[in-house]
Amino acid sequence: MRNFPITILRQTFVIAICGLLVSSCNKALDILPENVLDKSHVYQNVQDADAAVIGIYGELMNIAPQYIILNELRGDLMAPTENANQYLKQISTFNVNGQNPYSDPKAMYKIILDCNDALLNFKLMLRDKRMTQADFDIRYSAVGGIRSWLYLQLGIQYGTIAYVTNPIENIDALKDQKNFTQLNFDQLIDSLVQFTAALPAKDPFPAGTSLVTSVDGYSTDKFFLPIRCLLGDLYLWKGDYIQAATNYHVMLNYGDILYPAKNSEQWYYTYKIGYDDHTRGGNWGNIFNQPYGERYSNYEIMWDLPFDKNFAPKNPFIDLFYNQGNGYQLRPSQFAINNWNSQTRSDNTPGDYRGENASWKMVGGQPVINKFTSNYTPTTPFETNDKWILYRAATLHLHYAEAANRAGRIELAFAFLNLGLRYTFDPEHLNASHDSRDVTDIEQSFGAPFDFDARMGDFPSFRSPWYRHIGIRGRANMPILVIDSAKYFDTTVLPRTYLNSAAEDSLKLYMEDRLVESGGLELAFEGDRWPTLLRVALRREKLAPGSGVRFLQAKIKAKFAAEGNAAEGAAVAAKLANKTNWFLPFKWEE
Amino acid sequence: MHKQTKLGSKIFITAFAFVFLATGAYAGNRRDSIAVNYNREAKMTAPADTVFVSGLVKDAATGQPLVGASIQIEGYSAAISDNKGFFRVGVPTLEAVLSVGADGFQIKQVALKGRNNVTILLYTEPFGSVYDLVNLPLGMRPANQVSYSAVSVQVGDGWRQGSKASVESYLQGKVAGLDVKRNSGTPGDGANLMLRGFNSLYATNQPLIVVDGVPYDNEMYGNNLISEHRYNPISNIDLKDIDNITILKSGTSTYGTKGANGVILITTARARELATRIDFAAYAGFNSQADNLPLLDASGYRTLISDIMGTDTSLTSKDIQRMPFMNDDPSNPDYFRYHYNTNWQDLILRNSVNQNYYLKVTGGDNIAKYALSLGYMKNDGMQRNTDLTRYQVRFNGDLNLSKKLTAAINLSLSSNQQNSLNQGMASQTNPLYLSWIKPPILPSHVVGDDGKVSPNLADYDILGFSNPVSLVDHMQGFSKYYRFSGTVKFAYEFNPSLHLQTLVGVTFDKAQEDFFIPQSGVVPDTLDKAVAYNHSGSNLQRFFNLYNDTRLNYDHTFGGAHHLTLNLGARYSNYESEQEFGKGYNSATDEFVSVGMGVASLREIGGAIGKWRWMNGYFNADYDFRQKYFLSFNVAADGSSRFGTQADEGLKISDHSYPVMASISGAWLMSSENFLANAGFIESLKLRASYSQSGNDDIGNYTARQYYISQSLLGMQGVVRGNIGNPALQWEDVAKMNLGLDGSLFNERVSFSLDYYHNKTTKMITLEPINTATGFSYLISNNSAMQTDGLEFSLNGRLIGNGALSWDMGITLASYKNKILQLPGDEILTQFVDATYQTKVGQAANQFYGYKTDGIYNTAAEAAASGLLNVRADGSTAAFEAGDVRFVDNNGDGLISDADRQVIGSPNPKLTGGFSNTVTLKRWKMDMLFTFSTGGDLYNYQRARLESMSGFENQTEATVNRWRSDGQVTSMPRASWGDPSGNARFSDRWIEDGSYLRLRTLSLSYQIPVEKSALKYIYIYGTANNLFTFTKYLGYDPEFSATRSVFGQGVDLGLEPLGRTFQLGLRLGF
Prior knowledge:
Helix content of chain A: 40-55%
Number of strands of chain A: 17
Oligomer: heterodimer
Strand content of chain A: 5-15%
Largest interface: A-B, 85 and 81 residues
Distance between the termini of chain B: 58 Å
Largest sheet of chain B: 22 strands, antiparallel, barrel
Structural class of chain A: mainly alpha
Structural class of chain B: mainly beta
């Protein structure tokens, strides 16, 4: 009887000790969340790796408005409306304060954090054999590429930024300043070039990759960043025009890889601007208003993401661009409208097929931006499907031309901008549909990365890859931009030689100006404008201090002058005299 | 903290060893010495060499001697008073304390203080006495021996309160320092409890509620579909089932990281005697309609909107004249439709009824005792078609399984059905709000061109307002909730000093909502994908808890002088919560109200799952010497699945941190000292001090972990980082210092209690702004601190006390001051509806932060002379005009902008309390309770919406005095379309003094004389609640609580107000 309580006591003692001290209790306290994924449940296999890539691209869609606003509203083609909130107005007048939500880099850094997280974990997956080398190469490059693209965006907007490559997994990493190295824009471009060039798989995903699939009626093959284009752009920013052209060249000829039979319409048109009637002249707007995945506009498009009415995010551009309700915050600048309206087409009719009713339209007496919202009508307010085009053949052409021009291949740039290779590299500029001449040494350019074969011959019939090429202006039914050869060349001798040593440089400048102008007509509102202006300005400023400032000031002044607000234009231009004001203030903390 | 950690662990081990040895040594000690059991006959014989004390026991009320009173010295000797009330008892020393008690009378401790002859007065039970037993987490103690700040409320008057009183509202005004703010007048809506102010900004500030030893989870998991609808689990406990409530304001360390906000211990009623007793009560009552807000009538409204439309530059005067409601030609087909004078409030509000039936059976035998109660309640709401019905059953059983082993079983089940309506911010579907703003010129029903009224309700109007009558009639806001809790407690007595007990509790809770907003009469809503004409919703919330508390208790008195109590135990709690909801839109007709009937492509589903565990090992040692000097030590170590693995503090065991919370307290019962032997007017005087550590574990279930969330790309689910993990995330620490003085004078006719406390929260959770380059805005971290200092006073007096008439009066007063000590970034601004709060280092948390005003510009010249410019939302500036509010340019930059905001009020009251009276005259008994709150400011958001004069909404009568012509002297600004000058912005115009004094409860009972028969007694009750309120507050009622969050206090969303209720009751006892 006396032992009984003691036995119980002993047991109690043991239980009590268990209850407090034994490590099994520690286990009882490890409860993993069920409505979110714990760290231990991700990156187990290649599907998890795909989920990381999908998550990153899902987030990317959320920054669409910010991307467009920062890259266009700071340029000369887009302007805030009366409805615009003060933050949009600030951006347009280069007068941004710390509270401006559009200038907050946080959303981009969130995606960068997810990229960093994926990059680190992909490496661990490879190390632990949770992923094959081939699968790793594709996904690591995809994520690394988009991270570089985001950093390029940050660099363009803020100049000096924090270059974070650590996935900041905990508070210690957060407090460690080493993880937040500050780089200026040149250092950033160097780092990005180095990192991006070293990615193991820079070409688009090969067929059979699990990320290339069809979802909700959309093929995903154009969802993802073309890394070669980014790399070309990075080299272009850096000023390494040969490397830029080399990378662009791969993509310009990527039809060869997609269509190895090399005899189809797709092969002739993919990423080569050809005389395809579906996107030419008055049909140019089809590039934007055709549904996602439509055949002909898809030859042109290299990277786009669909806004679907059934999925978030809802097309954000309707509220920004369309004049209804509380929307209509942004509109085409009067300068942009004037620019299109003052063009003359090759048939001598006034205007530009890329202007009214293509890039913009009049709705209720107000000019409305028509890109990314071209299918929207207030009568069916919930039909908001559209596509966000981030990179297309015209972008590639203009960037390649910019590189070629600076690399001294001015004629090639001329060809891309105007009526195409076959026309330009034909001394007789016949552009005949059937040609029985000997074209062995004409209708093509030579020397990698500037070699393109546009030859066409009959008897025997011969069609080389680029024979349908018609150039940016050619496709829009615009006449050739004539260069006054006498200003630059000694026209008395053949082959042509420059008048003097300065002639080549001034021709390059002339050509570059024309490229910038044409970029405004072709790529307006797509997010290419401010980067192009900034790149050219920075380049010129480096070559001849003061010229970059003047270039940028002229562009912005012209915009405000066309709005009838020259005084404000002068004030903004005065701000732009200081190079640091070309960039937004970087908001370090909330 | 590290030192304490080590100390804590050492104490644990030492305590184990000590208990083990002590038990062995005293296992043979068979003396009965349970302090609380006086029915047990004393068996001791006095040792030969004792000192003897003689005395007289009398009835305090009548002065008659008491026969058969028991007098004893614990563990030493005992005696019984003779037929003249005299007794003689042996004592070990004249320093000893006598325990004196008699059947039907209180039990009292009488310190001899050197005297050998004492006269003892006993009061009849119940009597609020310093000798009453207080229920503490680890056992019972007489109040005058408690060294912590604890208040015990004997719920003797539960029957008299009627069915309108829930546990938390019953406590209002009764306990100094417990600020009870009832949420709204919606039946069953509960109250916001704050014990000694607040201790946290982002974690909970609700005290821990423990019912019969099991923590009662009073949270809601997930959001409700019905706007501002709340499920309040604690309302499942009927007040009539409650015996005692103890509010523990300090010394809560034993509950570790759950004790930061104090503890409310609720003990439900058990059978007291073996005889079978049956009680039946029926109540019926009347809830009076809330007073209507004074709004404009049709003609006032028409004048107002023509003024407002006149300021809309897009309208010409012709446009205005063309408006159908501006037409005064009876031949116009629209004439009749727009010429009503409808009082919308009368159409949806009403007088209503309430009823309650309750049956209780208690009884048993030597082996088993039981108490069974059944209840039914139905309470109609003040808006038509709202009500709450509740069924409940409770069974409390006590079993003597063997001489040593006892068991106690508590089972309770309740089921509620409630019909409610949207309230608060749902402006187009909240009938109460719509009844204010809906233009009075409009009819509730369809009206033909000829003026004939159709039986059909009118659709929403051309001005864009829903028909509130349609919502009241056709909205479905039905919710059902169930709660089951069951506990079994086994107690084993090894010997009279050593006990082992274990308690297992299970709680299951389920709440379900069925929701439907009809198309008819309601403005359609625009979704991303479609226009929503009707909405349906279904919501399910589940909660499950398994709880165990096992402890070993040792209680012994050594040599009649040294009393030692030791407890060692462990608690374990496993929680699971879950929410699932679905929303549907556009079912074919308003008759199809379920989610499945909606358009498939618009359906939305969602939910949440939470799981967490809490473990707690605790040790307690209480020691007293001659019931004069008291020392108490508590320590607990917590384990929780919520804590980060790298918490700074706490005891580290492998990769987990176990916070160790300790408290120590001491009390000195000065009145038992010899030097006060001659101060006869002092019954009891006790000085006490305590220091306790406790914590708050409400830091989110998974916040400390690094996790990933889903991010879709079209229909593909991707995964992205959800946070930056903070493995250092830990509990909040709350240290409480308390000094108190408890006294009882003039033979317990007057008693008082005075407390000063200082609570300091460190490691307080805040959202710490982090580097933008992380991609996140905030990190949830423990890096702020605040403190609260307070004073509390309570006084109880028996003003009159003789056999037939007695009058007891009580007053409670409490005041506290809060101060933020540390915050990342020194300041946080938070938003709740239109209100902004500033929380800044050096000042109290949650101060209203807005614009100061200084009247209005009566003339254009004044406006121009000010030179001030108003900064609008789009960044543009505009000058103020005549009739605009004169905002104070705080920073003097000539612009009225966000930078001019300043502190314009504080929702924290300065003084709260209650004033109670109980008068008994023969068979009559009257209770009267006043409650008050002073010094707190309220943001009258409903008035802000009803005096903004910027749209077609109907407004209050006060807007008649609006500024209309240059030079007009008034304080009401001009009416202007869209309010371009921001006259209605968050400013001190809407901040009002929320002080009030209210006759909270008035109840009267009469016991009808009955012949001795099967029917033992009949009581008749009459109860009135909220009978009158003195306040300057212009809104419905100064008492409301829209949220439990600190950053939402004092904002009046215009919820259903607390109305007056009257109830009659009848109780039969068999």
